[in-house]
What we know:
Elements (H helix, E strand, L loop, with lengths): L7 E3 L8 E3 L6 H13 L4 E4 L5 H12 L3 E5 L2 E5 L7 E4 L4 H11 L3 E7 L10 H9 L3 E3 L8 E6 L5 E5 L6 H9 L7 E5 L7 H13 L4 E2 L5 E4 L9 E2 L8 H10 L2 E5 L12 H7 L3 E5 L2 E5 L8 E3 L7 H9 L5 E4 L11 H11 L3 E5 L2 E5 L6 E3 L5 H11 L5 E4 L11 H8 L7
Parallel strand pairs: 2-15, 3-14, 6-7, 10-11, 18-19, 22-23
Antiparallel strand pairs: 1-23, 3-5, 4-5, 7-9, 8-9, 11-13, 12-13, 15-17, 16-17, 19-21, 20-21
Amino acid sequence: MTDTTAPLWPAPTAAAPVDATVALPGSKSITNRALVLAALAAGPSLVRHPLLARDTRLMIDALRVLGVGLETEGDDVRVTPAPVRGDAAIDTGLAGTVMRFVPPVAALAHGDVRFDGDPQARLRPMGTVLDALQALGVSIDDGGRGVLPFTVAGTGAVPGGDVTIDASGSSQFVSGLLLSAPRYDKGVTVHHDGRPVPSQPHIDMTVAMLREHGVEVDDSEPNVWRVEPGTVRAVDTVVEPDLSNAAPFLAAAVLTGGTVRVPRWPAATTQPGAQLSELLARMGADVSLDDGALTVRGTGTVLGIDADLHDVGELTPVLAALAAVASTPSHLRGIAHLRGHETDRLAALATEINGLGGEVTETADGLDIAPAPLRAGVFHSYADHRMAQAGAVLGLVVPGVEVDDIATTSKTLADFPGMWSALLGQDTSA
């Protein structure tokens, strides 16, 4: 759904090639995993340089409701674990990590924990997590719907054990179970049975972070993850910049023939957004990583791309915007799971780009995009931060694009409009 009460945001058109250094806030994916592990740990710890945006604040609020102490200390968050508290109500907003990572934590509570969220959140599939928790010995009341709202009836402990799920809809189904597994009596072994799990790097991230906290994880067998019961060691975590949020800013360099630098770009990471460097190079950019900064330079040419984005689906909206103004056709594949995100991103992208005069065709698992001259118009966000970012990217080279509900970008960037204006050298102080 779109917020019909939100004012339209005139997407700025670039008057010249951009030349900017963009300092990105912390990764949402790492921040929310770090917060959950810190909440389950054996002692206090710090999450350093976390992202503080809507999705992470919802996670902080959810863990506080469950009795965990969380206090900001400068740019950091100090987490003090406590026994998980029941008789609570949690607002998930539209945050997939909150609605899928927190119920397994709430299962450790003494008492009921009720979950609900934004209206759009009630459309996002939750049955995989809820059915898995019930198979592991947790009582769930969801009215048989497999979506929000639902109640987790905690008894203070979870037996755990083996569970088989179909995680082809989201890697978050696997990660959510693994994060709390060391606190379950028998740990958890998750077996995936279905089409390949999307966004595998996010599961790799979860496994790596569990190991950093001293948890024994065996992922040597394909589609099987075994977490042994045991102590979650308290570890201070330094959060990397959110590489996926670099996508619209780096795309601006490609579209305008300019240069954008992102400092603190990790040389090695489990973040899927790291693949931006390869993908943008294939679309015609010059890309280099020097002295810890990724630099993308536009060459004046934007090429179409034939790419399997199964593991990097979150990059699809911005890449689709680039493809819509490329000089050659594009085929974006392996992303059928995007139909179950904040909105059906495939249908939304086709509808909005075509509404501006584009030529986008939905396929069974992706989008075919042909070059076409675009025109002014409204680009609807569907309360989806990645859709709003795509609209902003198109506005760089298509005068008269207006994005509805640009505020939805606060889900992962507290002030995207301000950062976008700074990228273009515009003064927002007046």
